[in-house]
Amino acid sequence: MSEIYKSIRENDDLDLALNYALTKIRTAIKGRDDDLHILNLVTIDKKNIPNTRNIVIRDFSEKKLTIRFHTDKRSSKISDIQNNNKISLLGYERKDRLQIRFDAEATIIDSDEFLLDIWKSMYPMSRECYRVIESPGSKIKSLEDIKFEEDDDQGLNGFENFVAVSCDIQSIEVLYLHHAGHLRASYINNNGKLNGEWIVP
Predict the structure, then answer these.
(1) Which of 11, 101, 191, 196 is the most exposed place for a label (fewest CB within 10 A)?
(2) pLDDT value at position 2?
(3) Residue 139 class from Cβ within 10 Å (0-12 exposed, 13-18 middle, 19+ buried)?
(4) Which residues contact 2 (CB under 8 A, 6 or more apart)?
(5) Is 179 strand, coil or helix?
């Protein structure tokens, strides 16, 4: 039995169940090999069909209750969010057998000043995907049809396709899996304060 699971269970500790999960999210931002560095993003398209894909967490603010990720503004993620900004993020951490889900409202950040600061801090290889000429998801006949703009002296080619998305967390659900009995809790954002309760796994 893991120490964290044991402590949560023995003390009936809703706060610990949440705080430990959020600590794992914070450390995952810079941990490229961390299970929670990549989350599943679920959006709803114009036909009311759910779409799931992976995103990389770039920022998490526990104070503001926001998660930020970056993407190509031509991608279906953006058109989905423009259609319906209610999204879900889901991750699983194998070591602690911890599942965490965020329900959120997504806001597209299109401030050039804000985005440029992020862009300049990115590795050149991270910028390359934004220089692809055809929009993500475009149909092609051959892999040779995938072409990229050449980078310019200022390293700004592709910046016009770069965008950030801020996810305002409305609720969080954590699930600790264990053979002695799973632990599941839900936390609702009430004016910036998370109110939690245990729920049946």
Answers:
(1) 191
(2) 86
(3) exposed
(4) 96, 178
(5) coil
How many domains is the chain partitioned into structurally?
1
Closest by CA position to 16, among listed 1, 26, 6: 6
User: Which of 127-132's residues contact partners 24+ apart within 8 Å by CB, and which partners?
Assistant: 127/151, 127/155, 127/158, 127/159, 127/162, 128/158, 129/72, 129/158, 130/72, 130/158, 130/159, 130/161, 130/162, 131/157, 131/158, 131/161, 132/72
Which of 7, 11, 12, 3 is CA-nearest to residue 197? Answer: 12
Q: In percent, how much of the chain has pLDDT > 90? A: 88
Q: For the domain that residue 189 is a member of, what is the CATH number? A: 2.30.110.10
Radius of gyration of the chain (CA): 19
Per residue in 22-32, pLDDT (tens digit) is 999 999 999 99
Domain that holds residue 192: 3-198
What is the tens place of the pLDDT at every residue in 127-184?
Answer: 999 999 999 989 998 998 999 888 776 778 999 999 999 999 999 999 999 999 999 9
At 143, list the tokens: 């892999």
Quote the tokens at residue 187: 């936390």
Query: What is the structure's pLDDT at 1?
Result: 59
